[in-house]
Amino acid sequence: MVLLGTAFDLRASGHQKGVAVAPHTSSDPIVAHNLALALVASSNAPLLLLDNALTILAASKSFCRVFQIDPAKIDGCGIAELGNGEWNRPQLTSLLNATASGFAEIDNYEMELRREGKAARQLVLNAQKLDYSSPAEVRLVLSVTDVTDRRIAEKLKEDMIREKEVLLQELHHRVANSLQIIASVLLQNARKVQSNESRIHLVDAHQRVMSVAALQQQLATSRAGEVELRPYFNALCQSIGASMIRDHDQLSLNVDADGSVTSPDTSVSLGLIVTELVINALKHAFPDNRNGKISVGYHSRGPNWTLFVSDDGIGMPADPTSAKAGLGTSIVQALAKQLSAEVNVSGANPGTRVSIVHTYVPVLIGQDAALAQRAV
Question: CATH classification of 152-358 is 3.60.20.10, yes or no?
Fold first, then answer.
């Protein structure tokens, strides 16, 4: 609301902060006063015009309609006497007095309005002192917004989100339990079969199912939409170690990950990659009951990240091209491609290190692309 010359320009909004006022230029304060009264009274927003004694000089039709107050009984009424006394709030009175003295402004003050026989309403109040024609004539404009319905809608939305999160967590628990049952059946069958090749395939399938089960457990304890990778990898490696490492003094499986979080979809792919690489290291890196250590690491910096699995085993064959790529290698390659990452295999002296590296390259357009090309 702006006082220009002898009139107000009232721009009411849901949370009107106050009144921006320009210096009064009229030589007739009575004209300015009358125009102020008329404009406040005709405003579509719930407004009150008060003097320094907090007496109501004018009220908008919207204010009277919203709060069901007889317009004939409002002029000359103190704000504390408004209605049936429900506006007689010591804190509101104190804030208005401070505003009238020029020491403060009421900015989005929330107040609960209680009236006999009616539901409580949640209000947001804003008030500001006007620069009037005479310094002795203090005028305040008080705007009132009823946000009850908005608060109810916000609460309903929050309740629905919380309910959805609870149901989602319950779903993750149930899926994880079901996957663990399936994994147990696979492991039991692996112990019963006579064929060594079938046993290996069943154990591998067991670990792939357990990797997804570990993810489901992590989703159940993580914030919605996020998976913390360090506890996820820890749980995953503990599961693999429990079923595939007979002597933990002979072979160890450790995790070195930072505090990164990622989406559930990405975490599924990362978990499956870790499962395949760890299983591969356990099967091939330590023949003849060799002692050793396997490390799983994940570190990120912004959009760039690296996942690695390294071991201190016998290392890669002398002629890597002669080695036949198995199902695990194909799975890792496919998952890395899905994540727009590259697979790097190198010697660890001793052992082998497989890294999945994701490097973010921004797309340059227009002038930026031209400058980049010139720099090359």
Answer: no
